[in-house]
Amino acid sequence: MRQSSLVVVANRLPLDDNAAPDGACEWRRSPGGLAGALHAILEQTPATWVGWGGGVGPARDLPDIGTLRLRPVSLSEDELAGYYEGFANSTLWPLYHDAVEQPVFDRGWWETYRTVNRRFAEAAAEVAEPGATVWVQDYHLQLVPQMIRELRPDVRIGFFLHVPFPPPELFMQLPRRIELLRGMLGADLVGFQRPQAAHNVAQLAQKLLGARGADERILLDDRVVLTGAFPVSIDVAEMRSLSARPYVVNQARQLRHDLGAHKRVLLSVDRLDYTKGIEHRLTAYSELIRDGRVKVRDTVMVQVAVPSRERVESYRGLRDRIEREVGRINGEYGRVGEPAIHYLNQPFDRADLAALYQTADVMVVTPLRDGMNLVAKEFVAARREDNGALVLSEFAGAAAELEDAFLVNPHDVDGLKETLLHALAADPDDLATRMKGMRDYITSNDIHAWARAYLTALHESRVPAV
Ligand code: ADP
Ligand code: F6P
């Protein structure tokens, strides 16, 4: 077995098993923030990525991607249901996102979650060379840090949570709260998107595990666990160079023409997820049309919603509701050859996304809760001129960084309507100042800066407990 000095452990491999039209198997980059972010930094670093390849049944061997080795972990049909769709995405995901959808507590899922976490931990322990760094990602694998510590006390263990960590009163609802907290605190460094998360965890560790210490330095048993905020980012240079390619620029021009050259374009790009606030946004937009404050003849909305977790009931229900509402809005307000909303429920490649971002007058990113939201940063990176407005939810981690966006509370539909109008009518000089501010920020806080900051802190961890 080949071993590496850096091992990343994440639920998904950065590639998805995707059936081609002729039935052959082809691989594509997984949608979602985590794979995109880590893919960018690992392509040129000797490392092994342990993760699930997307299908069920025995995992196939996979070729390296540059210097990155892939170590697939298999899932059976039952494990997919209990671990991924069940405990990870029907219990933890809604609970960690402010319970905007009711979390499901199904006692049967826990054992499967634990079994699968152990499989990931064993795979990581196998491919880590002596003294290696093992970096575990996200809520799917919250038990893995402590499991690796037991299997391989010689390695340095990092854990990064890409999603929000909830307030203590919500976390306390979890039937398996002690195991989940202890599992995560098996790491030497636990990273979050926002400082508040580290504070919440320190409080819970005191209450549930009898830990001592402060927010960024938790004393648990005879160890120090460091915690901190490391806001994740994107590969700004990649998005910028993609956006400057002549065929992307031409595609953007063509899209503008197809949408109506004289029209103002509102654009949203999300995974089709109930945390993303798509329904609130559609309500706001349709009311603006209803009230005559926005006219379909001079404004159009584009909603890209990439299919996600489609076997989970709440996601299927959401998709049905959104598609009904888009149909209703177009039926009531559209005209022949002139829909009010273009709805695209399909994955796009990076170049298509770069072109789309360039067509928007207003990018509307209004999640009800989001750990970070990389789409907001991608929009800024893709803009080649100092124009275009970003309407951004206060409840996205990105809002703490992109202060020049038009910030909004998406739960307040009237406030959202006013902010959309404000962004549509903004003065070009104001937009230019805002765009420059956001561009400067992401340029110096890109994905490489994030990885450097996290890995440096991890290498300086393992401090004595005195
Ligand atoms: P999350 O991690 O919850 O999915 P983020 O906004 O952080 O949310 O990341 C979403 C990622 O998925 C972005 O990198 C974005 O470019 C990508 N993405 C969104 N929509 C699509 C799509 N239709 N096709 C391909 N990738 C998409
Ligand atoms: O960022 C949160 C996250 O759950 C990532 O871990 C994941 O890659 C992404 O959203 C997409 O979700 P999924 O892997 O369930 O398709």
Automatic annotation (TrEMBL):
CDD domains referenced in this protein's UniProt entry, alphabetically: GT20_TPS (cd03788)
Protein name: Trehalose-6-phosphate synthase
Family, similarity comment: Belongs to the glycosyltransferase 20 family.
InterPro entries the UniProt entry points to: Glyco_trans_20
Pfam families with a match to the protein in the record: Glyco_transf_20
